[in-house]
Amino acid sequence: MRIGELAARAGTTTRTLRYYETRGLLTARRTGNGYRTYDEDDLKLLRQIRTLQDFGFDLEETRPFVECLRAGHPEGDSCPASLVVYRRKLAELDALIEQLTSVRAQVGAQLARAEAAVPGGPEPKCELGGHA
Amino acid sequence: MRIGELAARAGTTTRTLRYYETRGLLTARRTGNGYRTYDEDDLKLLRQIRTLQDFGFDLEETRPFVECLRAGHPEGDSCPASLVVYRRKLAELDALIEQLTSVRAQVGAQLARAEAAVPGGPEPKCELGGHA
DNA sequence: GTAAGCCTTGACGCGGGCGTCAAGGCAAGA
DNA sequence: TCTTGCCTTGACGCCCGCGTCAAGGCTTAC
User: Fold this and answer.
1) A131 lies in a domain?
2) How many domains does the structure of chain B reveal?
3) Of A126, B9, B94, B100, which is least surrounded by CB within 10 A?
4) In chain B, positions 84-113, which contact chain A (CB-CB < 8 Å)?
């Protein structure tokens, strides 16, 4: 299949596929007239990339998965290098979630404090009877 | 005080302060030779901006706080417009945390599945002088 | 005098993942 | 033949919060 069809089947754009090619992911064969040609394996590979992207992996992080599939493995995460990326991502996610949770608490506290100080502000969902 | 001292006292750079000025936050008086001059109120204002930035607010979102301080209020969040930003940020944080938590679960599941399929994979955290 | 250390404006760079336009080639249908 | 619709490469734009030069002016110390 050609680039337009592949893009459509993967729910992305031709621009994106060409970009991946410049990055060394998703290489393409060429027909006589210079058109890129892809097969079902390329689609699978592309879907692997897109799934990871949706998870927030950046492109470089998808490379081990791509190489794993290229090496003939059944899944992109059938290789140790991919698992390393998974684990690192989990750690990053945990750290980020923790940080955001902390920020959320601080902003929430600021809001509560400020609402208590602004006359028309409190917008009470209940009687916040403090420990005063 | 001049820009270098203000930057140092706020733990930032002169470049950042000039950037804030182009954005309309943190305006400065000028001395005869064209140097920017700031006072303690400017420092307070700048610290307000920095605190919010640390929380992940983007610059535009700090504007209501800045204007609130400029209007003479004791705190940047002493105005309804600031509270609106707080509330919106809380909603964004909640949505983001929820999404990240979902992604974390999915990635964790993928890792577990892949580890079970890869022979040498599980990689138990033994021998690494852990918390055992 | 001159060197050091502050200040000024202007302008380009960066990172990431593309969007979007430009200018043109190839294939197929009416 | 001409139009339509795909394809090609190249290159600039965008977002955001600055970093990092460049080229020069002011002030103070020696």
Assistant:
1) no
2) 1
3) A126
4) 86-87, 89-90, 93-94, 96-97, 100-101, 103-104, 106-108, 110-111
| CA atom of A6 to C1′ atom of C21, Å | 23
Q: B30-70, pLDDT tens digit by residue?
A: 999 999 999 999 999 999 999 999 999 999 999 999 999 99
CB B75 within 8 A of CB B41: no
Domain around B44: 3-117
Contacts of A21 (CB under 8 A, 6+ apart): A27, A28, A36
**Is residue A55 within 8 Å of residue B103, measured between CB atoms?**
yes
Residue-wise pLDDT tens digits, B87-126: 999 999 999 999 999 999 999 999 999 998 866 544 444 4
Inter-chain touch A104–B90, beta carbons under 8 Å: yes
* pLDDT score for A125: 45
In the A/B pair of chains, how many CB contacts fall below 8 A? 87
Using pLDDT thresholds of 50, 70 and 90, give the confidence band for residue A117: confident
Residue B85 contacts residue B91 (beta carbons within 8 Å): no
Q: Find which nucleotide's C1' atom is closest to B36's CA.
A: C7
- Which residue would you say has higher pLDDT here, B119 or A28? A28
Alpha-helical segments (H) within chain B:
3-10, 14-22, 40-54, 59-70, 80-117
A105 lies in some domain: yes
Degrees, nearest 5: CA angle B129-A94-A99: 115
* Assigned domain for B46 exists: yes
- The verdict on a CB contact (< 8 Å) between B96 and A94 is no
